[in-house]
Amino acid sequence: MPKYRYTALNLENNKVSSVIDVKDEEDFRRHMRNQSLVPLTFKIVQERSVNYRLKSNEVSEFSRQMAGMLSSGITAVRAMEILKDRDFKPKLKAVYDQLHKDLQKGHTVSEAMQMQGRPFPELFVNMYASGEASGQLEKVAAKMGEHYEKEHRLNGKVKAAMRYPMILGVVTLLVVLAIFIFILPNFFESLGDMELPGLTKAVVAFSGFLQNYWYFVILGIMVLIAGFARLKALPAVAPVYDKIKLRLPVVGKLLRIIYTARFARTLSTLYSSGVSMLKALEITGTVINNKYIESQFDTLIKDVRNGETLSGSVSKIKGFDNKLANTILIGEEAGRLDSMLTSTADSFDYEAEMATGKLVQLMEPVMLIVMALVIGLVMISVMSPMMSIYGDASQLTGG
To answer: Taking the chain, what is the end-to-end CA distance rounded to the nearest angstrom?
Structure first.
């Protein structure tokens, strides 16, 4: 399917540029009509797909360095020549080498990034195109560096906070498997043919199953994980799965805060850089990383296009924090929507950090309780026959 790069006028008589996948020119013009765009120029572009996607910290570093060099009067071609010769890992260096080659051929930075396909996020490419069109590429590059640095910082804190509960969970699983596979079989074998209580029989049976078929258990777990990953990625399942995540106790609240912060930060970055509100919403919907929320953006964009206020349209989105619509309304009334979105994003970033900390504080005792219950169950199953033996011995002694 060919890619068409176009420049068009929207309903607000502003120029917008982007690249879309369409079947042919007729399909391209149909897309333009559906988006209420008037094409000024368009052409088919050749995409060079690179099988590597830059991480948020790599995008931030790239953009900050570009901003620094561009603001110093260095051309984009010379800036990429300097960047590509630095000591990067091979996959990242390949991306930079191709960017430099395309810039030498006369392509703009955004066109060169778009032609590679996978490496750069859509938001990043669109923002660079906007900066090139407005003649403020160095300012946009600096803003993108800050944007992706915040994204990387928040993601890093969430991952770091979740690391301890995950390690604790793995340790719990390994301890339980070691008890059932190596310790309990030897103990119960020493009991001989004595009659065992019901709970002990169940533990013995489970221990024997794990001892004899542990590889099937591991294989089954791997198949379940792989199958679940494929299932939740299906277009029909992904929105339902993401909707369920938002309704989970404690975790759902944290996710709503993170998605709200991401929406506010991205929309603020786009809108303050001169991107039209409709185009900004269209791009923002693709970076939320929640298919259920993303599925509601068509209605959101339609409402805004029909003249409804942004705050009123956002209030209908299920999955965002309720405070978002109210802060947008204040920004609209004060005529300071971009700054209000920025402060809102910063506020939600802080709330996300606090919510993550609370989640970890809750998960730690939960994991410890689970471990205690399992070990307690094992101890009861072990002590029951021992108490029975002790009772029988006492009767014999008394007799």
So the answer is: 91
Could you report the per-residue pLDDT of 309-332, keeping only the tens digit for each? 888 999 999 989 888 888 888 888
Residue 179 has what DSSP assignment? I
- Would you give the distance in Å from CA 9 to the centre of its chain? 33
Residue 399 pLDDT greater than 60, yes or no: no
Evaluated on CA atoms 191, 195, 197, 198, the torsion sign reads: positive
pTM of the model: 0.68
Q: What phi, psi does 256 have (nearest 5°)?
A: -60, -40
CA dist 66 and 354 (Å) reads: 33
Spatial separation of the C-alpha atoms in residues 240 and 208, rounded to whole Å: 39
CA distance 147 to 287: 13
Find the length of the chain.
399
* Residue 278 near residue 305 (C-beta atoms within 8 A): yes
Tokens for 327? 């802060």
Q: Cα separation of 53 and 121, whole Å?
A: 8
Q: Report the alpha-carbon distance of residue 180 to residue 373 in Å, rounded.
A: 14
- The per-residue b/e assignment along 252-284, b for 16 or more CB within 10 angstroms, e otherwise, is ebbbbbbbbbbbbbbbbbbbebebbbbbbbbbb
| Cross-strand bridge partners of residue 197 | none
Which residues are paired to 6 by β-bridges? 18, 42
